[in-house]
Design goal:
mainly beta
């Protein structure tokens, strides 16, 4: 323990690990996605770090087409989507 880093007076305990860690220290926040995309690629794993790379590898989604909107007597808006893109992975 470096005593220069101690800012307040008191009792300090320094624990010494006698056993190795029971869990390997690795990154656990690695997302994986499975879904339909515009471009068909063979089954593979690709690391992407931007939306530009995603579009280059997998393509985009089709634009939303047609929708219906209506207001009832209490001015509640209801929107019913029309044809949506089957490539929902893009969203």
């Amino acid at each position: 323990m470096d005593t220069a880093s101690l800012k307040t007076p008191g009792v300090y305990i320094q624990e010494i690990a006698t056993f190795p860690p029971s869990i390997a220290e690795v990154e656990t926040a690695i997302p994986a996605f499975i879904g339909f995309t515009e471009l068909v690629l063979p089954s593979s794993v690709n690391r992407i770090i931007s939306m530009v790379e995603y579009v280059a590898l997998y393509g985009m989604a089709e634009n939303q087409k047609d929708f219906a909107a209506s207001l009832d007597a209490a001015d509640n808006l209801t929107i019913v989507p029309g044809k949506t893109s089957p490539y929902i992975m893009y969203y």
